[in-house]
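Dear U.,

For the methods section draft, I wanted the exact inputs and outputs in one place so we can describe them consistently. I've listed the two proteins in the order they'll appear in the manuscript figures. Please don't edit the token lines directly; just add comments below if something needs changing.

First protein:
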Amino acid sequence: MINYTISYNNPHRHYVDFELTASTNGKESVQFQLAAWRPGRYELADFAQNIQKWSAFDENNNPIPFTKITKDLWEVTTEGVREVTITYNFYANQLDAGACYLDEHQLYLNPVHCMFYIAGKKEEEYTLNLEIPTTYKIASSMEQKENTLSIKGYDALAESPIICSDSLQHGTYDVDGITFHLWFQGECKPDWKKLKKDFSAFSKSQINHFGGCPTNEYHFFFQITPYRSYHGVEHTNNTVVLLGPGNEIMYKRYEDLLGVSSHELYHTWNIKAIRPVEMYPYDYTKENYFRTGFVAEGVTTYMGDMMLYNSGVFNWNEFIKTQNQNLERHLTNYGRFNLSVADSGFDNWLDGYKLGAPDRKTSIYPDAALCMLMIDLEIIRNTGGKESLHSVMKELYEEFALKGKGYSEDDFRNICVKFGGLKVAKIFEDHIYGTENYIPTLKTALEVVSIELHEKKNPNLSAQYFGFVAVKENGKIIIKKVEPNSVTDKNGIAPEDEITKVNGKKVEGKLADILKDFKKEVTFTIKKKFSKTDINLTAGNYYPLLEFIKSENATNEQLTLRKVWSNN
């Protein structure tokens, strides 16, 4: 048994105090391991950098020696000690869906960031005693008795976030005997009737497609911010979603709320239950290299939106908007010609989820989702609508997740090819493991349901006219992306260059507002690290986009398969 006491003083300083007590079982030394990464984000995180103080004591409260062996592993000398206690504090000032945050209004913990396991004893039971204000309620998927939480095993603890505050709003709904909890932290006004109706619909759709659910209870934890935000993190029987602003979540941001929630719920099956063999079990001390990020996030990105559509929560326009967003992200990332989605997923451990070197890699989210769209349609074509990508995922669930084993790259590919045939094998070769142009294959796949790709101009005017994307950082206009061989590129302008003037005038307000009234040529004053120069750029049509449009000349067979696709 590992007992934790969690408390804090001066919450504005954001430090949370932890006290861990455990039996030594007569061992001469005990090692305490903090995770180096968290499941759901495949990059090293170095959570230990947030620890300010660390000490160890025996059962009589006498200090005992310890050594830090690695960046996140401590070893305590326990010869002659029956019970060891370690105390440390953790800086909790990162408010997102996967981190920790403390202020005067809430205590929010993701245990994988800040709580230890004893090396060799990951299956120990944990009790967490929370010393919090009497007005606070606790939102958690762990077993709860008053202010004490309990759970068995570090894997389960690591995936059990906790929110404590006096402003939690809570509602529930039931689907097929499973209770779903909706927790809202932050200022907002949930429309419970609307939420329960829509969440029930897509939850039921997901359960039906898999033929069961890995858990008998599920919690949605919503961290609602007063500013614009968007982030979600999946766990075995819960998810944390960060979204804002709070006064927009039931209308302007409602599609986003539904989208991220459906996505994270789908992860309950895909990546939490259906897990790559390389992550069976998790090793929290180092990278868990695997190349099937295109399954973990590509399938989930595509299916999360598809479940909203086939359950009737999204209409066609709302659904196809999500597919157009995937296509836009694909077309504006020239890394698609340099690193495949399989290799890009592997390299998340190298450079994480940030942009990184320009045009170096692609994404396991939109790019892999487009691959899954193509595979889904080819399976529907090959089987006359009798099977789909749902069939693949259900087989993975039944043959791997329910049998307690991980799947390999070959397992996933072979099941897809079994249902979809040689065209699916070609998609794997060209697009999942290769860097061939997606568009011809995508057009062919879309013919199954009589969907066409139509050209459209990029709505971002700097991207459309000159081939660059810029953002405002600390009051400065900074170029972030440049299309290779665009007029911007050919004139020596690069990412991280600053635009200080347009046509001799300092940039005030939005760049788009200035460019909408442009003439044929524009003069940009560009500031680099060691120089400043005026550069004339002539407008063209860059970063061109495509969009999905229903064909008006669909055959009866195409209409039938379109119905199968959308209702499947």
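Second protein (the one for the lower panel):
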Amino acid sequence: MTETSSPQIWLYDTTLRDGTQREGLSVSIEDKLRIARALDELGVPFIEGGWPGANPKDVQFFWQLQSSPLKNAQVTAFCSTRRPNTTVANEPMLQAILAAGTHWVTIFGKSWDLHVIQGINTTLPENLAMIRDSIEYLRAQGRSVIYDAEHWFDGYKHNPEYAMQTLITAVSSGAEWIVLCDTNGGTLPHEISKIVAEVTSYLGSTIKIGIHTHNDCDTAVANALAAVMNGAKMVQGTINGYGERCGNANLCSLIPNLQLKMGFKCIEDKQLIRLSETSRFVSEVVNLAPDEHTAFVGRSAFAHKGGIHVSAVERNPLTYEHIQPELVGNQRRIVISDQAGVSNVIAKARTFGIELDKKNPATRQILERLKVLESEGYQFEGAEASFELLMREALGTRRQFFKVKGFQVNCDLVRGEETHNALATVKIAVNGQDILEAAEGNGPVAALDAALRKALVNFYPRISDFELSDYKVRILNGHAGTSAKTRALVESHNGQQRWTTVGVSTNILDASYQAVVEGLEYGLLLNVAAPTYEHV
């Protein structure tokens, strides 16, 4: 695919407006600015910043961008057409849009006669006037207009003549883009194909058509691709598919499908390499755990678990990978589990910078140890840091930064009063010196983690950068009641890297202790050079 021969698809990101309507997602002004700048660096040409007439946060967002604009992207302000039976000059929403100071403005209007009559309680001719007046007014103020035809596909299916009238009105009033919206997300790809083809044929090739799809039928990406195949030149969506209800079309899937599979030009290849990084960055900013199984950018998108698969991929990645993961900034992962073979162990060791071969007795020893531990309840496919430590133990290269000699955890329980306080006491040895420390936490695991850090930070200052970012507990044999075996998974990070460790025990505190201690040990392995004192 050469850049000169590839037709252009214009990306329009609405993460900062439509995406923030997802249940449980909330962002600050600073969050929105950080995401906007990340999208700008990714090469997205249109970034919808919000509805400045709807809330003070969006007003301030646009003000801040006026003083510190993006480098490349066009930021668009979003609002509806004027209200029924009013004038555009006296419409506060349109005044707020103008005050936002963007050259591009996106407005939406009604396409479905049901919404016109029952939703906004007006007449079909008045709705056409609302579309015409709003676009003409914004054009007279020097703005370029993108018209989002809300509920377009439902409107077209119920009353195609009127729905087409709304588009003709928008085009004749000066809209530069007409975006067909599947607002309820109920249209399927074959319907999208047929209707978009009819619209492009009717309006002609000079009218620029876009597509905006929702994921209520789990077909938002497929619907957007179907629209492009039938003439759409703009694709609207969100990073990670965020959006209300079931979400919007996921740009992290759309971009590589369009660019790598269909031969369209969306962004530069060097920007495409940042796609996985951008996906994870946005999930961090909005404080939502990334979906590890998302196509293209998920951590498991190029993960291989079965021994036959791993062996084949080692010989030729095309056997089980549809693209090179590096094209979208992702990487191949070899998953370690009780289904692993020697090929898995060798391939996984290589990712840690360790070269093994089948003749090395340690390779078979690691594999057998892995299978025994997983039969006891350990899970290394989700705790690769613990597997690396296990592997280094078998090879005799595991560094012992410290040794825990014992710990105690006490929880305060006062009858009639709800308390969350816990006190942990730990005794560790570093460089032949015994350290006794205590710390409080809002639970036993938090207290234990705090006590360990307190005891170690003077020897390893970088440990203050480590954070416990996730903690999961699973009961493995519930039929055993309170004597059931428990698996604890602890995810830690240092701001740049993440790692997960595992512990298993019939005692939930012991399982948690194992995972927390290994998490600290692995963090030190990544971040700290060995101290001059290596023996504990």
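Candidate sentences for the figure legend, describing the second protein: The chain is about 40% helix and 20% strand. The two ends are 58 Å apart (CA to CA).

Thanks,
Y.
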